[in-house]
Design a protein that fits this description.
alpha/beta, 5-stranded parallel beta sheet, Rossmann fold, 7 helices, 5 strands
Length: 177
């Protein structure tokens, strides 16, 4: 078992440029200390410099990092594209092992909006439209209905507010760490 009955695990998934990192940052800003951000991009691309493929080392590193933070008493926001076929089993085990509430969200943004958002990102020059289109998977939901779908019409502020309320993070004190 991992974490405690009080720790919250929030999993944010969606295609590239769907707003996952912005939502995660908004949750951290709203909550304060005691909320760990576990980002797939950071662990996969920065720490390991690894391609996203089935069975890759980052899958285990993401799992271990989330578990470690939960066991240390942190609430965890795990965010990334986290394709269901590559990461679904790990996410299901993490959910099953977590002693506290786990909430999953899928940010469902159409490809056209993804492309419009992508051109504003620092990696826009190094990632082409063809690459983005190749990565894009419409409604790549996890098995078993484990996620709430949030569509592109939800603003950043509304999405953060909804997740804070749904997860109960809005009623918990920040930690003095």
């Amino acid at each position: 078992m991992v974490g405690t009955e009080q720790t919250r695990l929030v999993v944010l998934r969606g295609n590239s440029a769907s707003g996952k990192s912005s939502v995660a940052a908004g949750l951290r800003e709203r909550f304060g200390r005691g909320l760990a951000l576990v980002g797939q991009d950071n662990l996969r691309r920065t720490v390991l410099r690894e391609r996203d493929r089935p069975g890759a080392a980052n899958i285990g590193l993401i799992d271990l990092t989330a578990r470690y933070a939960l066991d240390a008493g942190y609430h965890v926001v795990l965010e990334g594209i986290l394709h269901a076929d590559h990461y679904g089993d790990m996410l299901a085990r993490l959910h099953a092992d977590h002693c506290g509430p786990t909430h999953g969200y899928y940010l469902d943004v159409p490809f056209e909006e993804t492309m419009a958002r992508h051109i504003t990102k620092p990696i826009a020059d190094s990632v082409s439209e063809a690459q983005l289109r190749d990565w894009y998977r419409p409604r790549d939901l996890l098995a078993g209905g484990a996620e709430t779908v949030i569509d592109a019409a939800s603003t950043l502020a509304a999405t953060v507010e909804r997740i804070m309320r749904d997860t109960g993070l809005d009623g918990l004190p920040a930690l003095d760490r």
